[in-house]
Amino acid sequence: MKETISLQELFKILKKRIVLIFSILVMSVTIAAVVSYFFLSPIYEVSTQILINQKELEQNQFNTQDIETNLQLINTYNVIIKSPVILSKVIDNLELNTTTDLLYEKIEVNSEQNSQVINVSVQDSNPIRAVNIANMTAEVLQNEIRTLMNVDNITVISPAVNKKNIKPVSPNIPLNLVIATVIGVMIGVGITLLKVYLDTSIKTEQDVNDILELSILGLVSPITQKKSIDSKGLKSLRKQRRHKSV
């Protein structure tokens, strides 16, 4: 076989194996759809917003130094929110059947650049439980920060709420189907090219020239007539030949 293959030959090979490629594609998409719809539990996400500010401000106004000080505390608060001190109290208050490590994986803490607002996001298979965890985390933080850092500068500005018809954030079924389509096509094309690469049989005169490096002296055309002839037909053919020879 040739070590290199032209783009035109590649398209011919893929066209010849289009049924195989399409079958693998359909199977891949079907498996992804079944798993996404029936085996993966939907995960919901809710969030609450916490404002970090100063306990007492002169003339009820912020100044540049206050804001910079608060911004420096953001990273510290991000760590404290997901610390076992906070999470263990959240578990106890809500009587959750989980551990701090598992709860840690459900909570995501982030803040906008140069912002004093912290977003506490919670993902859970139960939307009501996710709301309770998010709000309880903010409440426990607000209470415990007085003891941990001797400050009272946390305000919950947007508690989590259980919205109607909330859509799960995962599984992302359209994305899963797109990924399955790409994977199915790649597998189908890969199997096709592998079969062609492993097939060392000689099919055309060009294969003889490429593999054996011999010149083509002649070709045998395909025989279209029936391979077997009945006895009567054979006798008739022999009579015709005898008659012509005479």
Automatic annotation (TrEMBL):
<feature type="domain" description="Polysaccharide chain length determinant N-terminal">
    <location>
        <begin position="3"/>
        <end position="94"/>
    </location>
</feature>
<keyword id="KW-0812">Transmembrane</keyword>
<dbReference type="InterPro" id="IPR050445">
    <property type="entry name" value="Bact_polysacc_biosynth/exp"/>
</dbReference>
<dbReference type="Pfam" id="PF02706">
    <property type="entry name" value="Wzz"/>
</dbReference>
<dbReference type="Pfam" id="PF13807">
    <property type="entry name" value="GNVR"/>
</dbReference>
<protein>
    <submittedName>
        <fullName>Capsular polysaccharide biosynthesis protein</fullName>
    </submittedName>
</protein>
<keyword id="KW-0472">Membrane</keyword>
<comment type="similarity">
    <text>Belongs to the CpsC/CapA family.</text>
</comment>
<feature type="domain" description="Tyrosine-protein kinase G-rich">
    <location>
        <begin position="136"/>
        <end position="195"/>
    </location>
</feature>
<feature type="transmembrane region" description="Helical">
    <location>
        <begin position="20"/>
        <end position="40"/>
    </location>
</feature>
<feature type="transmembrane region" description="Helical">
    <location>
        <begin position="173"/>
        <end position="194"/>
    </location>
</feature>
<dbReference type="InterPro" id="IPR003856">
    <property type="entry name" value="LPS_length_determ_N"/>
</dbReference>
<dbReference type="GO" id="GO:0005886">
    <property type="term" value="C:plasma membrane"/>
</dbReference>
<dbReference type="InterPro" id="IPR032807">
    <property type="entry name" value="GNVR"/>
</dbReference>
<keyword id="KW-1133">Transmembrane helix</keyword>
<keyword id="KW-1003">Cell membrane</keyword>
<dbReference type="GO" id="GO:0004713">
    <property type="term" value="F:protein tyrosine kinase activity"/>
</dbReference>
